[in-house]
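Hello Y.,

Per our agreement to keep a running log of every chain we model this quarter, I'm adding this entry. I've kept the format consistent with earlier entries: sequence first, then predicted structure.
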Amino acid sequence: MSIKKSVIALTLSAFIVPAAFADSGWSWVGGQIGWAPHATPSSKSRAEVNQELENFRDNPVDAAGWSYAGNELGYLPPQHSYRIENGKLAHDDKIDHGTSHPVTAMAEEERRQYEASYPNG
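Predicted structure for the entry above:
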């Protein structure tokens, strides 16, 4: 890359980088302070935020199903629970068990490539 292209790239990045941080909640102050927080615009009203907080306090589970335990524990993943039904274990939780499983069987071409790549095993 030539010096001219390098200067152009640095100049453009100097204008693009501050725009990327415009609504991030941080702004460059300069000097020894550096980055300082500032208020960011919100699309929700105070009542909506308070209602969302109350809903989370009633049921502290996030969108991925993790439960908030608080303090140093933080979030805990969803746990499987089972019950015995007609002498067999049955799922008793609300976790989706319909996910597909990986196919471990190799096609003939894959098997040949595997054996050529790993002759001992």
